Protein 1
Amino acid sequence: MTLLAVGINYNTAPVAIRERLAFPAEILESSLTTLWNQREVQGAAILSTCNRTEFYCQTDNNSPDTLINWIAENKKIDVAEFSTYLYSHTDSQSIRHMFRVACGLDSMVLGEPQILGQMKTAYQAAYEAGTLGKHLGKLFQHTFSAAKKVRTDTAIGSSPVSVAFAAVQLSQQIFDSLSEQTALLIGAGETIELTARHLYQNNIGRIIIANRTYDKAHALASQFDGYAIALSELPSHLAEADIVVSSTASQLPILGKGSVESAIKKRKHKPMFMVDLAVPRDIEPEVEQLSDVYLYTVDDLQHTIDQNMDSRREAAKQAEEIIDTQVEHFLSWMRSQGAQSVIKDYRQQAELTRDEALAKALKQLNNGQTSEDVLNRLAYTLTNKLIHTPSTQIREAGANDRHDLVAAAREIFKLKGTP
């Protein structure tokens, strides 16, 4: 039995290849079923994200050929078109790879947490399709435990590495409580959406979203219990904002020194925290000259992000050590499975011996023999029957100079005394 991991990711394959090998949710169950039905496959799961597609299988051999041919057939793509982009791992390296992926150590953004949720989705899909198998199912469970331990014992995910998250983190350093603050977000793109999400998760008091297209602003604001305004309404709402984050594609500044100065006067010089994430800049640089305004640009935040990336890299070293230990734990579990059948057979043999001796003892009691005599004979008979075969085998091992078996017997039975 082999644990096999085969896949492509953002490092090995361009998006043109990744999108051809993607497995969206609507075809995942049927794809898992056809993969599991391959003759050499006893377990299968598929992880498919925008950055990677990976196949985790329990197979009869360590060759990925069956899987690669299945991919080609399933996706109607020639093997030569994608095989050079593939990576393949077996057994301990497969285990390590899955652990690293789940911990975010193999992600485009080091330590990002979303991949763990995506792996749990892959596990759930395979579970519902009935394609996991014993060993692969256990591996997924151990993977989740390893990822949890890494998250708990290291700082791999504690330091923000996006400008949106860094902006929110900085605002938390300036204001005692975001729940009492109003945030004005200018734009409606991905960065502003991410900023809104982080603010919302950190219990911001109010969110106002301004955009050139009001409908886009409204659609975004409605996700975070905020309200939308058009850009033309900025002057009348700017004074309400304790936090201003701007990220648009405008070629000219949206907020000038004069409009911000007017807002500060209306606020009676209550401090305003402003972050300009746009290039070209949305906020005139001269705004920084105003008292009670704390203006940061994307370059200012980059220093924080670089520091946080250093922190994550250091945490990643700790994570790798944890993964080394967790891989060995899982390998130990796999090795123990080889002994399970021996333990089962030995127990069945002992139970059969017990039942035969007990039946004989009950018959003797029914025939009128005293309970003391029957119990003594039962104990004697049961002891002799249980030790007969091991004793014979140990004696033969000694006669044949199999000292390794004699030593193993002493260890297995925990015998004391001089070997």
Protein 2
Amino acid sequence: MSIAEKQNQLLEELALFQDWTERYEYVIGLGKKLPPMEESVKNPEHLIKGCQSQVWLDASLVDGAVRYSADSDSLITKGMIALFVRVLDGEKPDAILTADMGFIDRTGLKEHLAPTRANALNLMATQMKQRALAFAGPPAH
């Protein structure tokens, strides 16, 4: 399944909920399903700077695909990073770097977030792409 297909699937799931509180409960549920992150990785090096809550993000390259692990000390923030992990985990670095992250605007979540949390979504998307960039091959000439 491509990144765009995963994004559309996620948007379809969120569209099933009529009000934003149900959407938030769903997003929080996604966060609760994230695999536990190693405590040793929860350090300043893996912290996403600029987020109101503490959000840790780690990435590794396994068989040519980027594998993400993430956690947060806030349930809603953990759910928000889980959205990105679900869409980008297991993808090739180049696919992540070219992915349109605007799908997050179409979730309708930003309208109901405090500005600092809405900004955190942009920071998360940027950090996930930066982690993928570290694994991308040299640019083609």
Protein 3
Amino acid sequence: MNTVKTPQNAVRPFGWRDKLGYAMGDMGCGFSFQLVSTFMQLFYMQYIGVGEEAYAIIIMLSKIFDAINDIIIGNLVDTKRIGKKSKYMPWILLGGVTLVIFNVMLFAPVKDFSQWGKYAWCLGSYCLWSIAYTMVNVPYGSLHSVITDNPQEKVSLSTFRSIGAALPAIVIMIVLPGIVYNTTANSAGEEVQILKGETLLPVAIVLSVIALVVLWGTTKLVKERVNHESSENAVGFKAIISSAKSFFTNRAMVGATIATVASVAFFNSTMALNNMVFQYFFRDTGKIGIAMIGSYAPMIIFMALIGKLTKKFGKKNVIVTTMLVGAIAGIVSFFVPITPDSKGMIIYVVCLMGLNLGNAGFQISVWAIVADCIEMSYRKTGKSEEGSLYALYSFFRKLAQGVGQAVVALGLSAIGFVEGDNAVQPADFGENVKSLYFVVLAVGSLIAFLSMKFIYNIGKKEEIEFAQEIES
């Protein structure tokens, strides 16, 4: 079992080009993922007319499909080279091209289809989008493990990846509300803000092309320097079983994955609820972008400090401490009185700042954590399974997206949401959707905290040992 570095005279040293290129990779993924996670649910429920229960079933069926899809593609990335110079870059480009096609297909205006036709289109296009996204995201995520084996350089890559992921989210939250929402009167004569679903198709086309260009930039800027020589080269079904065994016997990977599921399901995949808070409680979708930038201020501050904090205290200690703060903030926020006016909006943003502070340490460091988990697996088994292990991790992330959207759909059904264009909601719907959002965020914070505290087992001591072994 050897970790082989490419000779220094053949590959330039790790530097800013790698950081920028790696950030561009998540930026490319983000332009597609953020659009889908923020607006797909609203598009199909408010514009196309798919009911909450039907949408929840569609999402969960698509995630069952993803279980097969992720594992197969992860194994292909590990065992099949489709390019001569790089193990991962050709997969990223191929996935980027297909992502353009299926991202556009997902937001096609199928409003006039029959109800079963709408269900079939939503399920089919989302499954195809999942294949394309996996073809990009699995090799891109695996890339983290082979750019450098230096722990602090891995943290810097994770930080820049978080920056790359944040930029599309900021663009989508600031620019799109002014494009996709329109103020009008509903059938009861009330002034409401309606989703203009027909605008999402041209938006999807533009963002998909931008995503492809940015992903191409990643392939030109990032260099692979670490080659894990494998003591065992299983293929096919045997390789899948081997990777699954490595994954589930790696306690750190299990702990990080549970925390990720909680974070993605209850934070990243519930942005539709935040949009609905502004749509139905504050009745001002134009403030979504400004409010969200304010709420993410703690994460921006953490990006500047995370390297020093993790070096001094260790990644686990930083994450556990901030997550505890987030869990407490979530519970307190549920009981804070918030009024549907400018003052109430400020209080709402402050509450979200506390919750996002709790999630910031994990969101920024998670990719370095996953790389540590993959490195631990390699040291334990001697098998080069970066693609397959990351694919399994990616599967649980995607499963969490489905769980989050299903939770949102069923939660909305429980508080009386009425689907369809220009529908009249119950009088207390705005207040209830705000409360639902805080409950969901608090639950996610608590689950993630417990998993990182009691299951994840790579502490500062193990991180120091990693660094010492690399130096020697």
Protein 4
Amino acid sequence: MDSEQKALGILVGGGPAPGLNGVIAAVTIEARRHNLKVYGIYDGYKWLVQNDEKKLYEHVRELRIKDVSRIHFTGGSILRTSRTNPVKVKNGVENAVENLKKLGVNYMVTTGGDDTAFGASSIAAATKGLVKFAHVPKTIDNDLPLPNDLPTFGYQTARNLGAVLVKNMMEDSRTTGRWYIVVAMGRHTGHLALGITKSAGSTLAIIAEEFGNEGDISVNQVADILETAILKRRAMGHDHGVLVISEGVAERFTEADLFKAAGHRIEKDSYGHIQLADVELGKIIKREVEQRFQDRGEKFRMVEINIGYVLRCADPIPFDQEYTRDLGYHAVHYLLSNRPQDQSNAMICVENGRLTPIKFEDILDPKTGKTAIRFVDTESDYYRVARSYMVRLEKRDLEDKELLKIMAQELKMTPEAFVNRYRYLVE
């Protein structure tokens, strides 16, 4: 390596998102234009945190402009990705610092969600200024605390494709007289499920934030919301519908509920999250609601489908193609900036076409020490609009004597018993 030529490394962490290749391309092109060597590091932090020089060099690739030309149109990541947590690997942070030294990396671009950002901040602090970091926020969950509700890249593409899929399911449900349960990604938040619901006009959405941002959520309560939505739709003369539910609801189920539903203990990943793919949220809700109808002597079948993995590696729509080019360009210019205010390690944001860096320490939650989460604000007009177009039990329904009578009859209850049973949902 030319001792006079500085080098920039780039890696991708966490789950895939549309636009990753756009960031890789934009960073590589702009860095090469500034006479930097560019090293693509495969599989997130996986090899960077190991004390294995041979494996490290086997998983590092020098990138040139010809290697990344036109990849911004494609989904996935040419550098792949992983969920390795540097803090959880023995001597992982220290190994990462030593490996960056061996590679001769002066600047580092990481792209990922809250966990990847936390890993970047941990390694950046350990380098003590030797390597300057810029983190490009990515997640289809849209849950990173960007200013003025800026979306994270990948979200718009995921919402776009998700809305198309749900629209098709809505037509299928109408044609066949069937109910669908659609599970969308969103470990901590319901941005994606809500965005898909508003765009496609599905029957209703259920997100974790509607139960408050802390505390347990019971399977019975979720089933109650869906069951009463089905009853209300029937009372309105419709035998079909589509529920979009955020996978993060399962994150807050009690351990007893999860064990009962799955039949075994759900394992956790290196960041302490339960493995949501093993929970099968749609099946849990489907079984519970179907059993209720069966207990009343009615054969009722629902269809559940998880669209999460279908959305993550979609080709980005033009919004994310443009957005990721802006982010990659500004990441390089931030790293090379000599302005005093640009000397910290930072998360890269582009607001109104201008670079708006956020220092790593400013995105940490003081309670947890981890990257802060942007939840759906259930007091906002945005959420109020979403709820106003959903078909689900509302307080006014319990005051509508005719509607209440029809719903109660479905359950072979008196109207008074129905109110006593389900009033808590609207209080």
